[in-house]
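Quick question, first post here. What does this chain look like in 3D?
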Amino acid sequence: MVFTMMANIQSKLFWVLLGFLAIGMYYPLIGLVALVCMFAPVAFSFAKGRYWCGNFCPRGSFYDHVASRFSPQKPIPAFFKSTPFRVFALLFVMGMFGSQMYYAWGSAEAMGAVIIRVIFATTIVGIVLSLLFHQRTWCSFCPMGTISAWVSSARKPMPLLVSEACVGCRLCTKACPLQLRPY
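> Answer (accepted):
Ran it through. Tokens below.
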């Protein structure tokens, strides 16, 4: 029952992303609300690893429930999962974010506009990657997901549990939106 309810909520979270971007284009102050989606994945990672990414991320919901319809479902290239690329993506996105925030500092509306622009630009990158590879390609190097992975790896690992009833068919791998290999 709880799993079904969570899946239902997760399948609708993409509306938060779409509504946020639509409203943010006209009322940039709402961009400050998105700071929750920047800090929550990292906060969750101290206790639950990248739990936010698969369950509460509005962008992840968008990729799973909208972009997946158009994605060729190709494997995510290993390059995007590599540590050097993830570090580059983190530094690039945060550098752009930080430099824009520096000039916007002091004006809540300008700071909100920066957040809207960064989310819009990175969502467009994610959509393009979804059309070329797998719908969750962006997630493999998302800056907040990268930080969350680093934080969660510094604590006791949370192994992926496989049921005793597993017959080794590996269908779970094909169904996993993050291309994990639980078997």
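The chain has one domain: 2-175.
Residues 27 and 109 are 8 Å apart (CA to CA).
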